[in-house]
Amino acid sequence: MSTTSRIRVAESADVSADASIGDGSSIWHLAQVREQAVLGENCVIGRGAYIGTGVRLGDNCKVQNYALVYEPAELGHGVFIGPAVVLTNDTYPRAVNPDGTLKSADDWEAVGVTIREGASIGARAVCVAPVTIGAWATIAAGAVVTKDVPDHALMVGVPARRIGWVGKAGQPLERDGDEWRCPVTSTRYAEADGALREVTTND
Description:
203 residues; mainly beta; single chain; 0% helix; seven-stranded parallel beta sheet
């Protein structure tokens, strides 16, 4: 593995010279980071992962082994992408045009997946673009997300549906009277109209 500043890149990784890699980031064996991709500081790109052209990652993101992050995905700070996750970019995929000619980049318009700060996508989950995953949400392993996901939502199944809420620690929130409470941090949340907000001391 070669090191530039505090950037570590495995010799077998394929990183475009046009990509921007933040300080402290690591790119492991057989990973590919394409042109104009932007990785924030302290990101970890696992073995065999793919980061598409122009994809943007915030600081402290983890993309686990063999995950496929297709352009134009945008990930906020602290996003976790589990092993073999797929973020798609083609709503109506075809290899050929109606006349039988092979599709080129000019024959379709890529649409992306947006993942907000702190959210986690479990192993082998698929996010079907265009879709937005809210901050601190958790998508369970194997789920297929086809609709926007609210902040702090816990999503499971095919298609994914909300079965609860999660806090910033990642564990499911517990009902406590009219509110929800994180069992790890004791942070309290209020639910209204299908959304969750943190309860402050001024509430």
